[in-house]
């Protein structure tokens, strides 16, 4: 028997919650995006009136205002959104204990075991939709299907305040004509790669040769084929069930342009202290420090550094984050005008600092080569072999052989004399 999966998406969530607190916003175009003077300059959510004018999520406030003159901007109140998210989940929990969050405003529900009590999947979806509207004053769109991917597509299919059921009988008519970008985990780059090969719709992806998709996109290509054909069997998590925490991060938006090195250091140290505190609170440490910066024009770049040992203190995190920051005094970039230009390009930005738990490769040579050559790390191809501090280095004598060392070719894949060769230094005594 097929599972019965619901995906519930709260419509224009941030904007709808703000309207509950200020009913005057109901009849005017509005967007949640903060104060332009304080650089909270991105649209986080918008109501239907603003959407009708072409306002899009994640675009700059000045762009939204150009498209929709007179639009009202409201600063975000995340405590309110968290409150209504909890209230909605408390309603979902009355129908099943398998409720998996997908952000504050979206959830999957597995109601397979609840159909005898509450009716079919569609009936449960309609009941939840009405309760959310009557009890919370918000609207939701619900997708009903036999897997998570199609349920998500169903909730996106008709908005707002609607229920869409996708079954094994009708998914080719509903899902396959949709743009490939509508499929979960298909971003702009993946969509562009698919279009190069004539795959514009989900149906094109579904009917494409799986080996071609794998060559094109690796393992993700094969996974997309599974999604498009309705073969995904990923379970819905139980309430309170959480995956292993892989990273800890924090973000901030600068209230003014960061014009000098001191201001940059202050912002980064604040982020470092916050991330370090959260790591210690959870009893974790991390090897990988990543800094993401989003400029005022929405251009984003990232820098990261792998550490030799796991850390959880603010000083170590700060040093790792500050080193690769554009404009920091490293890498020979020292002239004042050069530094100032680099910093100026990063002005008015949102910064996200994350520390990931991924372990680095073994640092010592012996561990890297499996103990075969404990005195020397040997690399194939161009470049010099790197010697550990304790290892005997070969003597370099131009024009004559070294008195106590010689080179001995080591046969590789293509045999001696063919292709690239490895060179091993052997001691011949003093």
The overall pLDDT, averaged over residues, is 76
The CATH class of one domain turns out to be Alpha Beta
Largest sheet: 5 strands, mixed
Q: Note the overall shape.
A: globular
* Structural Rg: 28 Å
Derived structural class: alpha+beta
Structure notes:
- This protein has 430 residues and is α+β, with helices and mostly antiparallel strands.
- Among the domains are: 10-99 and 115-145 and 158-164, MutS, DNA mismatch repair protein, domain I (3-Layer(aba) Sandwich), CATH 3.40.1170.60; 247-356, DNA polymerase, Y-family, little finger domain (Dna Ligase, domain 1), CATH 3.30.1490.
- It is 34% helix and 18% strand.
- A five-stranded mixed beta sheet has the order 5-6-1-7-8. A four-stranded antiparallel beta sheet has the order 9-12-10-11, covered by helices on one side. A three-stranded mixed beta sheet has the order 3-2-4.
- Helix 1 (13-21) crosses helix 4 (78-92), helix 11 crosses helix 12 (219-228) and helix 13 (261-281) crosses helix 14 (314-322).
- The termini are far apart.
Topology of this structure?
Elements: E1 5-10, H1 13-21, E2 30-32, E3 45-46, H2 48-52, H3 61-67, E4 72-74, H4 78-92, E5 99-101, E6 106-110, H5 115-118, H6 121-136, E7 140-145, H7 148-157, E8 163-165, H8 171-174, H9 188-196, H10 202-207, H11 210-217, H12 219-228, E9 247-253, H13 261-281, E10 286-294, E11 300-311, H14 314-322, H15 336-345, E12 350-356, H16 365-368, E13 405-410, E14 422-427
Parallel strand pairs: 2-4, 7-8
Antiparallel strand pairs: 1-6, 1-7, 2-3, 5-6, 9-12, 10-11, 10-12, 13-14
């Amino acid at each position: 028997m097929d599972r019965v999966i619901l995906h519930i998406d709260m419509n224009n969530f941030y904007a709808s919650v703000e309207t509950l607190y200020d009913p005057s916003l109901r009849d005017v175009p509005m967007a949640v995006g903060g104060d332009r003077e304080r650089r909270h300059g991105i649209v986080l959510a918008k109501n239907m009136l603003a959407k009708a004018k072409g306002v899009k999520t994640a675009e700059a406030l000045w762009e939204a205002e150009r498209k929709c003159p007179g639009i009202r901007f409201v600063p975000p109140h995340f405590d309110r959104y968290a409150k209504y998210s909890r209230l909605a989940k408390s309603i979902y929990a009355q129908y099943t204990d398998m409720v998996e969050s997908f952000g504050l405003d979206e959830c999957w529900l597995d109601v397979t075991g609840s159909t005898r009590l509450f009716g079919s999947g569609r009936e449960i979806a309609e009941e939840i939709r009405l309760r959310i509207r009557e009890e919370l004053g918000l609207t939701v769109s619900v997708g009903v299907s036999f897997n998570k991917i199609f349920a998500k597509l169903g909730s996106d299919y008709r908005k707002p305040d609607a229920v869409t059921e996708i079954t094994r009988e009708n998914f080719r008519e509903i899902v396959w004509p949709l743009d490939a970008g509508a499929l979960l985990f298909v971003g702009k780059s993946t969509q562009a790669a698919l279009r190069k090969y004539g795959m514009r719709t989900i149906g094109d992806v579904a009917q494409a040769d799986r080996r071609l998709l794998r060559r094109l996109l690796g393992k993700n290509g094969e996974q997309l084929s599974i999604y498009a054909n309705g073969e995904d069997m990923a379970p819905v998590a139980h309430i309170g069930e959480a995956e292993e925490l892989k990273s800890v991060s924090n973000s901030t938006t600068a209230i003014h342009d960061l014009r000098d090195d001191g201001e940059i250091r202050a912002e980064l140290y604040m982020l470092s202290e916050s991330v370090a505190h959260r790591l210690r609170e959870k009893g974790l440490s991390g090897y990988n420090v990543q800094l993401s910066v989003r400029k005022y024009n929405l251009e984003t770049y990232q820098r990261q550094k792998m550490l030799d040992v796991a850390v959880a203190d603010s000083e170590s995190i700060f040093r790792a984050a500050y080193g690769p920051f554009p404009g920091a005094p490293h890498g020979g970039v020292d002239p004042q005008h050069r530094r100032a230009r680099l910093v100026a390009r990063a002005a008015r930005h949102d910064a996200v600092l994350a520390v990931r738990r991924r372990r680095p490769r073994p640092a010592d040579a012996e561990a890297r080569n499996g103990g075969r050559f404990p005195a020397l790390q040997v690399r194939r191809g161009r470049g010099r072999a790197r010697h550990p501090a304790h290892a005997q280095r070969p003597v370099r004598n131009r024009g004559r052989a070294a008195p106590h060392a010689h080179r001995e070719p080591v046969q590789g894949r293509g045999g001696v004399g063919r292709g690239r060769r490895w060179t091993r230094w052997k001691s011949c005594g003093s």
